[in-house]
Structure formats: structure tokens, C-alpha cells
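Okay, can you check this protein?
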Amino acid sequence: MSRRWTEAEAQQPLDLRLAIPALAVWLGCLVAVWAPAAVPWAVAALGVALIGCGAATRRGWLKPAAVVAALTCCLAALVLTSLRFSAAAIDPLVGAADAQDWVVVEVTVLGDPAPVQQGWDSSGPRDASADAGRWRLGAKAKSVTVHGMSSSSHSPVTIFADGGAWGAVRDGQTIRLQGTAQPDEFGALPGVVIRARGQPQLMAAASPWTRWATHARERLAHSARALDADQGGLLRGLVVGDTRGIDEQLSADAKTSGLTHLVAVSGTHMAIAAGAILLLFRRFGPRISGVAVAAAFAVLVILVGPQPSVLRAVTMGLIAISAAVVGRSKSALSALSATVFGLLLVDPALAVSVGFALSVQATAGLILLAPVLTRALERRRVPRGWAMVISIPVAAHLATIPVITAISGAVSLVAIPANIAVTPVVAPALLLGLGCLIVGVIWPAAGELVARIDGPLLGWITGTAHRLAHWPWATVPWSASTIGVWALAALIVVGLVIFRFRASRSLVIAAALGAVLVVIGAQLVSIGWPGRGWIITMCDVGQGDGIVLSTDVRGTAVVVDTGPDPSAMDSCLARLGVSTIALLVVTHLHADHVGGLSGAVRGRTVDAIGIGPDKSSPRATAELGALSRVRGIPITRLTSGAKWASAGLRIDVLGPTRQFRGTESDPNNESVVLRATHSGIRMLLTGDIERPAQQALLDVDADLKAEVLKQPHHGSSKLLPEFVAAVDADVAVIGVGADNDYGHPSQAALQRDLDAGISRILRTDTDGEVQVVLTQSGLGTVARGTGSRDPAAP
């Protein structure tokens, strides 16, 4: 006799009554944030549509209840968001920022200060964590004084300040400061960036629970010192979202392996914590379990701070884990829709937040897909616990792939196995971490002991991130364009539909296994991109320079110039797997070297920017200044003799050695000239210097010798034979556009290279993206799409 389905097991139809209005509110917020000038036209169009629906209803042509609800919600979101923007725009502090006035403001600090990396000096780079340093603080304004007139303010504020006193400011304190206000040009809502001068003046202490939370975080950081750097950094990130202890390598590997959500508080973090508590208290009934989860979340909100991202993570995590454990997709989808509806009305800026989109998508995946996958595995006799361990990360990852790809330009092939591997240990690691925090406040020695007990679990997570991120096929590049992202989403949907049928499922599995074998085989025989052991890449950005220098930290690189095209530069960095730019150098301000700046920084962390003396482009100067102000990136003017070193890469600034006036192109001759050294290989990067700058370097007897020469000025004929001879390079790389109007590279320059003994010349117009790689037998070269060349080939 066949087994009958129970009511609890039967799949319930989806209830979209709240989902459609929630999506309509999201759309209305998006229009108001992205295109405020189009709001009147959108309001008029929605009004006409509502009138048309009313007429159609009276004539009996349709029953548009859902349509009317969606149009009404969209219209309300448009109007409310526009009013919110208008109110924020007339805030007196925002007005002062528009005029770049000197202000005295009183603010409430939101979160502990974060150190900002300092710039260069003649003796090398400075580390902000090693001295008084520069600090970044988030705050909410309470009042502002401009030109002697005081008024209230509610604007969000980002503060940049120097000195040890700023590092002692704590979350929840009310302080008074003074400085120059500037507009926050990258915020969704009007905001302000203040460059503070002088010391902060404490006006009011934080609340008792905020002081307790600050003390608890400090005790947790002390307990974390009992572990190695990776484990200690993860302990702080996992428990209270403090990422200051996480180094570059772990951060990069977590991104590659899809474990970033575990090194800071996220929706998945909260869902796993709630799931562990539910399983622990399930025997006491749903009421006690619910109280335990609510209490844990309340403590976490106090510890981490009631920031919008944390509150969103709590809400989304609670809904997600409830749906995954109980399997009630119908009610959970309604709850998710109501949450989205409410959060967007409270904070319309969430409509353009990547974190918000990922939270919603991951939660929706756990609501709609995880129960289906769990039931399918259970029908194949997989125990329910293990079925959930597998289905939850798979569902969350499939749901978020499109947005993650739009950010990174790559698809992680190891994210699902990495999350499955760490899921069994995350909950106990988190609970032990919370125990470490609570016990450490009372008894520091006991806190250290609990941290050591938690160490192996934390080590399993960090070890998984490191191992899987270094697999040769950990990620594959994918177009981050709109078409590419939608195509990927369509492939996922089609794949899920096909997977429902046994015959097609077998074909899909066979095809996937075949693809994996091809990818692994290609990597093993060094076919593909990027080449193994690459040290320098010349991106194919058209007529311009876009250079990437590798470091010993996976995912971290130095970028020198960004070409003219943001999309081309972004795609090149995505193919290389670069998520962090340790240093971005702009040799001079011509568009073919700085035009792609927005693409280079898109979705990436930038630690520092270096520029030369060229001031020929006010537009480029303004763009660099805005980027520095808003994202807190220090800008340093590079001078001859400056040095920089990080993660196996050393950079020496050789030029310009003087100012140039009256030459054929002063900006070209004032290009920053760098010598980069990695693994003993020297690379001379020359910008667009012409004969006067080349001769100036020869006159000061600069050490120009290098194994790799970045050809000056895209292969221009304005090249001194003595300069090329002094470099004595083995390889030359030329960034140049196909069929350009300048005749680059010139035959005269190519002949001078050959006369100087340069045996290999790589050109982006004929070879595409090119790389110099370090092999066991010496220097090799790789051209994207043409395979690897023998190190000894001409």
C-alpha cells in the first residue's frame, strides 16, 4: 500500500498577496532614488493607471484588486521617498556641506572608530594600526553651528579625523567636533562627510547597555589573542561583527569561497544562530524556543549595535530559519514580504543596498527552495538533519548568485561545498564564541579558555576558506553586465526546472561533470586565464594603460592606471579575481589612464591611491577627490624616492625627477615612473613619458634596469635608444588599441626594442590581455586566448 501524504507534508500554494505590494514598494523606492527627476512623470503615469483601473472595474471588464493594490503601493513609495529626500536635502548640515563650510556639529557616534590606512612617505608606507593614525567614524547629527547660527540636524555623518583621541571615541557617545563639511556623493540619501580638526569634545556618555557592549567587545578581542591571527579574527567577526582582526588573506579567501557572511554579522549568521538555539530548546516547546531566540537576538543587537544592517539581518535571519525548520513557505513568504514592505518605508535607501538585496534573496531562497530540496532529499532517505545541512546553503547560494556575480564578475564553484563543509561547526562555534564573550567579561582567564576550546572549530572554517579558495577552479569569470546577470539567472531557473525530471537530470549531471573535468584538465595543463605565477598583467582596455601587479595575497593586487573604459577595466580585474586593490596609482590624468577609475573600484576595497604632480584635468581631480572623501581612501602625491611594500611586492618611485614646462606634453612627461619588484623580477612602469622625461631619468643616473618594461606612451616613436638600453629588459608590454589614430606602436619604437635585445614584445592590440609569468625555467608570457608561450620563444 502506498504511503499517504499528511497535511503538514503537503506543499501549500504560495500566497503572493503581500509579495506583489512589497515588490511594488521596492520599485517605487528605486525610481525615487535612482531617477528623482522622473518622479513627477511616474506619479502622473501611476495616477492615470489607477483611474483606468477604476473605469475598467466599473464596466466589469476586470477585477483589478491586486493591480490597484500594487499601483497604490508604488505610488505611495514614490511620494514618501521623494518627501524623505526633500526633507534630507534641506537639512542645514547638508546645505553647509554643499557650500563646503566650516561647521561645529554635535553627533551621536554609531559604532567604534575604524582605522584608515595612512599614505606613503619617503621612508615607506605607514600602518594606521601602529600609531595614532587616521580614523573613520559613522555618526548621526544632532545639531550644527554654521557662521555662528545653530540649528538642529538629523543628517547621517561620516567623520575622518587624525590623532589618538579619536581612536578612544566609543559607540553611543555624543561628541562635539569641528571641521570642513563636504557632501557625501555616494550615499543613497543626502549625507555629509566631515574632515575633523582638533580633538573631539565629549558631551554625553553612552547608555549603560552600550558601555557594557563596548566593554564586552574589548574583552572578546582580548580573549581572541589566545588564538592564532585567523582564528582570533574570525571569533570577533562571527560573534560581534568586528572585522578589524581579519587579515587581507582571510578576507580575500572568504570572498572567493563564499564564506564572507561568516566573517561579519549577516542574515545567514543570524539564521544559523537561531537554528542552533531552536534545536537546543525544541524539547521545551515553541514558546520557550521563541523566547530563547528573541533573547539571543536582543543580546546580539546590543553587542553589535542597532545599525540598520544588523536589524535587517536579525529580521531576515529569524524569518529564514523559521521557514527552513518549520517548512511553512506560505506564511513565511508573507512575513518576508511584510518585512520588506516595512523596512523600505522606514529606510527607502535600502532599495539600492546590495546587502539588502542579498538578504532578501537569500531569505526567499530559504523560504521557497530549501523546503523543496529538503523534502526531495528526505524522499531519498537522507536524514532530515543532514537534508537541512545540504539544502540551506544550496538554496541560499542559488538565490544570491546573480547579485554576487553582478558585484564580483565571477561565479564561485566552491561556495556550495564550502558552506556545506562549515555548516555543522558554525552553530557550535558561534555559541562557544558567545560563551567566550559572556564569561570573559566576568572572568578573563575563563574567556581565554573558552576561546581555545572554540579554536579548532574556528580553524575548520578558516582552513576551509583557505583551501577551497586556492583550488584552481574555485571561480570562473562571468559577465557582470545586465545581460550577463539576467542570462545567469535564467540558466539557474532553467536548471532547476530541468532538474525536476529524472531523464533530463541525468543529462545535466553528466554535462556538469564533463564541464568540471574540462576545467580541471585545463588548469592542470596551464590552459586558461589567468596564467599560473603571473606577476604583471596588461589589461586590454583599448587605447590606454591598465596594469595589474600581483601580490602574495590571493585576490589582492596593485593597479597602475585604469584605461579609458570602466567596463573593460572592471572585467579585466574580475577575470583576475581581484577583490582588493592595495594601491591604485594614477600616473597622470589623461583620460586613457584614468577614465576607467569607476570600473576599477566597482565592488572592490581600495586601500590607498597614489597620484603624480599632473593637474591638467579638473574633472579627473574632482573624481579622485570625491572617491577619497566618500570611501575614506587616503590619496598621496608620489614623489621621486618614495617607497611602498606589501605582501611580497615592492614599489619604488623613480620619477618625475622635476617639473616640465614647455615640452610637447607636460602631463605625459610628468607621469609617475615606478619600478615594481616581485619575486626578484623588476618591472619598470613608465606611464607616457617622452624624450625629456626619459633624458631626465638618465641625467640623474636612476636605476632603470628591469626584466620587464612597460613601453612608454603606448609604443610612441618618442623613445630614446639610450633609455631602452639602460633598462636592458627581456620583455616589453604595450597597452595599445587596435587601429588607433596615433599610429601606435610605431615601427621605430619596436625596432629600438629589438636593437636593445628585447626578445619578446607583447601588444594588447594583437594579443589581447597579456601577462608575464614566473616559471621554473624563467620568465614566461601568456596572451589571453592564445595559450602560454615558451619562456625562450622569441
Summary: The two ends are 76 Å apart (CA to CA). The longest strand covers residues 134-146. DSSP finds 28 helices and 28 strands in the chain.
